[in-house]
Design a protein that fits this description.
Rossmann fold, alpha/beta, 249 residues, 11 strands, six-stranded mixed beta sheet, five-stranded parallel beta sheet
Length: 249
């Protein structure tokens, strides 16, 4: 069956040269973007209930831009003036770059990992005498606390924001040829919104092993996978599939 319509379970890209827009142009398909999940901040009161006093920490571990936003939001709500001496350990260059929204970069002690949390751990170990705070989501990857415990440092993880299922009720009678998912939370959202969802002829495109596992656990069929050596990005995987099934048009 040919592919004419695709729903991507993420916000619409803000950059004009997104490969999704190239895909629309090149393959003459309709792509809609809709986040299946969204992030909501936890109040300062809820953070305090987790026995978090920001005065106790000398270093902050930031794994995402959401972590940056919500750490500084909670600090402001608590009327906590973040000291200039605070050290920031950022999981990637993208997170470190985003930190400039809140701090004067050249005047701060900022340590940057390459990409994964494991790659950040040698930097944390180097400063093992610091007191680390890890502001994070309620859905933290298990390797994060495992890595921190293995380092033997003084640290605490606290929920500063939550991943929440979005209301998709307006899509109840809308059909797409392909649904694109990037996280197990997206699959969870699909079934919370549509408990009786049946895949039938809908193709499911999935990014990452944990998402593939979540799809299969729900008894669904994975039709398009990324990343693979041949198709390292989702847009490449979609294009390859579309060219294969639409070539007779």
């Amino acid at each position: 069956m040919k592919v004419k319509t695709i729903l991507v379970s993420q916000p619409e890209p803000k950059i004009e040269n997104s490969p999704y827009f190239d895909l629309i142009e090149k393959q003459k398909v309709k792509i809609d973007f809709r986040p299946f999940i969204h992030v909501e901040g936890v109040s300062a009161k809820e953070v305090r209930h987790q026995k978090v006093d920001l005065n106790h920490y000398s270093a902050i571990i930031l794994t995402s831009r959401n972590a940056v936003d919500h750490f500084f939001r909670v600090a402001e709500e608590m009327r906590f003036k973040v000291p200039d001496t605070m050290k920031y350990f950022c999981q990637s260059e993208a997170v470190a770059y985003y930190l400039q929204k809140y701090v004067v970069y050249r005047k701060r002690k900022i340590y940057v990992g390459k990409r994964t949390f494991a790659e950040l751990s040698p930097l944390i170990k180097k400063y093992k005498d610091e007191k680390f705070l890890l502001p994070n989501t309620d859905k933290i990857k298990p390797e994060v606390p495992e890595t921190m415990d293995a380092l033997g440092v003084n640290w605490k993880q606290a929920t500063f924001y939550k991943t929440v299922v979005s209301d998709l009720s307006d899509l109840a009678d809308v059909y797409y040829d392909v649904l694109v998912f990037f996280s197990p939370s997206g699959i969870e959202s699909l079934f919370q919104n549509f408990p009786d969802f049946k895949q039938n002829d809908t193709r499911i495109a999935v990014f990452g092993n944990t998402t593939i596992k979540a799809v299969k656990e729900k008894g669904l069929r994975v039709d398009i996978e990324a990343p693979t050596p041949e198709t390292p990005s989702m847009t490449m995987a979609l294009e390859k599939y579309i060219e294969k099934v639409n070539k007779g048009r």
